């Protein structure tokens, strides 16, 4: 479970601390440009590292420095509680004067307060214990060390942490571009959902019982679904389609031809199945209600919130009144900036209530601009 996320000098996030300890679900609200998606982009940097991408230029760009202040390092810190141990990972990236490519300034991983490895520039130090240095080696300034360091086994704490990073679900789907074709399988979907077919195939390939969860959810939302087929098209490819049945008639539709909103239901179904099958997972879903009709939003949000408990977490962003009403004051976080020249700040709605700045209905206050 994510305990803390700290971001400095990354886009509009300066000295930004996300206060989410022990919260299983969080709603981020704020005007366009307030920094909601920037949080997802920062998490994507960490996710890519967990997935083995270690060249700095493939993780961040010059434009990611806040307000072009490249003389100040980009700094990311994440603290995660996994299997009773607290993991703290720190990464600082710099762009020295006259350099064309960013490089690693500082990097470290602590497990329950004990350094697993530390780094200063190219020098990496591995530890068995806090006082017992195991090894020292050099890594290119332009490479992140975490993907390079090998875990001893699947149960090694290092592997547990890297797997958690890799399997974070960071979603901002573009349904119109999603297809059901696959030439392989994965448990690591991309944010736009463009490899949905591979993800669907991967989840069912490794966890066949997940089909029951997917089918159950979709039948509640789309009652005329008869079944879902992932047909083998050739030796290395499959294609997803949906069969519908009503009034003693049937119809088969390729996945890419169903509506954008229905594709979001499929994403939700696989998210729920993935969390149950190989979770608990962390999910950040940017505006999950974007393509849904108003009557569908409430059920959609509640299903996700109910599923992400017992160590799992889900963060969502939204501008939808129905989605906002499905969260409490204690887990609705407002992001705001005075202007594009100012950094993002945050406050929970409960703080507005406690200070007397908010009285009455939250949605009405938002519509009237009393908060944002």
UniProtKB/TrEMBL annotation:
<dbReference type="GO" id="GO:0000731">
    <property type="term" value="P:DNA synthesis involved in DNA repair"/>
</dbReference>
<protein>
    <submittedName>
        <fullName>ATPase</fullName>
    </submittedName>
</protein>
<feature type="domain" description="ATPase AAA-type core">
    <location>
        <begin position="216"/>
        <end position="324"/>
    </location>
</feature>
<dbReference type="InterPro" id="IPR003959">
    <property type="entry name" value="ATPase_AAA_core"/>
</dbReference>
<dbReference type="GO" id="GO:0006302">
    <property type="term" value="P:double-strand break repair"/>
</dbReference>
<dbReference type="InterPro" id="IPR027417">
    <property type="entry name" value="P-loop_NTPase"/>
</dbReference>
<dbReference type="Pfam" id="PF13175">
    <property type="entry name" value="AAA_15"/>
</dbReference>
<feature type="domain" description="Endonuclease GajA/Old nuclease/RecF-like AAA">
    <location>
        <begin position="1"/>
        <end position="50"/>
    </location>
</feature>
<dbReference type="Pfam" id="PF13304">
    <property type="entry name" value="AAA_21"/>
</dbReference>
<dbReference type="GO" id="GO:0005524">
    <property type="term" value="F:ATP binding"/>
</dbReference>
<dbReference type="InterPro" id="IPR041685">
    <property type="entry name" value="AAA_GajA/Old/RecF-like"/>
</dbReference>
<dbReference type="GO" id="GO:0016887">
    <property type="term" value="F:ATP hydrolysis activity"/>
</dbReference>
């Amino acid at each position: 479970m994510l305990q803390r996320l700290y971001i400095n000098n990354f886009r509009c996030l300066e000295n930004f601390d996300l206060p989410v300890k022990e919260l299983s679900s969080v709603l981020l609200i704020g005007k366009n440009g307030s920094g909601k998606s920037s949080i997802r982009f920062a998490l994507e940097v960490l996710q890519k590292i967990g997935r083995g991408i270690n060249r700095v230029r493939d993780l961040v760009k010059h434009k990611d420095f806040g307000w072009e202040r490249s003389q100040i390092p980009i700094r990311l810190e994440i603290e995660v509680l996994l299997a009773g141990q607290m993991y703290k990972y720190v990464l600082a990236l710099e762009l020295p004067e006259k350099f064309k490519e960013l490089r690693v300034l500082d990097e470290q991983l602590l497990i329950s307060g004990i350094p697993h490895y530390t780094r200063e520039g190219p020098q990496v130090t591995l530890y068995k214990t806090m006082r017992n240095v195991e090894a020292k080696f050099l890594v290119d300034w332009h490479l992140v060390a975490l993907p390079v360091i090998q875990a001893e086994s699947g149960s090694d704490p290092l592997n547990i942490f890297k797997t958690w990073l890799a399997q974070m679900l960071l979603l901002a789907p573009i349904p119109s571009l999603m297809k059901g074709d696959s030439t392989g399988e994965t448990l690591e979907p991309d944010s736009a959902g463009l490899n949905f077919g591979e993800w669907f195939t991967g989840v069912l390939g490794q966890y066949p019982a997940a089909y029951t969860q997917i089918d159950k959810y979709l039948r509640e939302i789309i009652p005329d679904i008869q079944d879902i087929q992932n047909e083998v098209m050739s030796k290395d490819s499959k294609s997803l389609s949906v069969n519908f049945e009503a009034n003693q008639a049937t119809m088969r539709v390729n996945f890419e031809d169903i509506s954008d909103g229905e594709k979001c239901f499929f994403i939700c179904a696989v998210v729920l199945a993935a969390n149950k099958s190989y979770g608990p997972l962390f999910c950040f879903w940017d505006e999950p209600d974007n393509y849904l009709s108003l009557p569908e939003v409430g059920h959609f949000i509640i299903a996700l919130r109910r599923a992400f408990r017992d160590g799992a977490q889900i963060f969502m962003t939204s501008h939808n009144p129905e989605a906002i009403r499905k969260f409490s004051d204690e887990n609705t976080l407002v992001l705001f900036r005075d202007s594009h020249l100012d950094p993002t700040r945050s406050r929970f709605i409960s703080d507005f209530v406690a200070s007397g700045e908010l009285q009455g209905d939250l949605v009405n206050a938002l519509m009237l601009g009393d908060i944002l």
